[in-house]
Amino acid sequence: MRNLGLLTGIVMMILTACDGKVYDTYRHTSLEGWERNDTLCYDVAKMAQAGNYLVELGLRTDYDFPFVAITLIVDQTILPEGTTLRDTLDCRLVKTNSTQKTGGISCFEYNTEVRRLRLNANDSMHITVRHDMKRDILPGVSDVGISVRRME
User: Fold this and answer.
1) Which of 87, 98, 128, 130 is the most exposed place for a label (fewest CB within 10 A)?
2) 131 with 5: CB under 8 angstroms?
3) How much is the pLDDT for 139?
4) Any residues with CB less than 8 A from the CB of 36 and at least 6 apart, and which?
């Protein structure tokens, strides 16, 4: 029985390591509100191998967020070549029947694809995220995250 538990633990660790994630980090926004000029920065280390990668954005909001959607600007600079790619994301956070798209008690989490890209070995990325809403100070956004995953 003890060996079965050990084997289960090892299998779980292997499966967790096989999802291809090379980066997954969240940054907090100000408790007073996320200002338009507050740019969140993410530095992704060098890729171990060339391949196709998926960049995703995660957003955590609470009940203070006053809108049904949010517009975000994501800039991705691929180093060492210095190419910058810009994506404007229009994320709808509420279904047409006025309910949240995700479950949660006091916090709601949303994930959306930013871009799929081909990266070379030893490429790294500098990613920035800022909001592009009419309101300068945006309440109710607690965290914004970026994850990068190698695709098979």
Assistant:
1) 98
2) no
3) 96
4) 130, 131, 132, 133, 136, 137, 138
Q: Under a CB-based contact definition with an 8 Å cutoff, are residues 79 and 72 in contact? A: no
**All domains in the chain, ordered by first residue:** 20-150 (2.60.120.380)
pLDDT the model gives residue 16: 47
Structure tokens at 30: 């100000």
Q: Determine the distance from the C-alpha atom of residue 58 to the mean position of all C-alpha atoms in its chain, rounded to a whole number.
A: 4
Alpha carbons 108 and 106: distance in angstroms, whole number: 7
- All residues at 6 or more sequence positions from 125 whose CB lies less than 8 Å from its CB, including other chains: 42, 43, 44, 76, 77, 78, 79, 119, 148
Strands (E), 6-66: 21-28, 34-35, 40-44, 51-61
Instruction: Using alpha carbons, select from 45, 59, 47 the residue that is nearest to residue 150.
Output: 47
Backbone φ and ψ of 58, nearest 5°? -115, 140
- Cα-trace Rg, the chain: 18
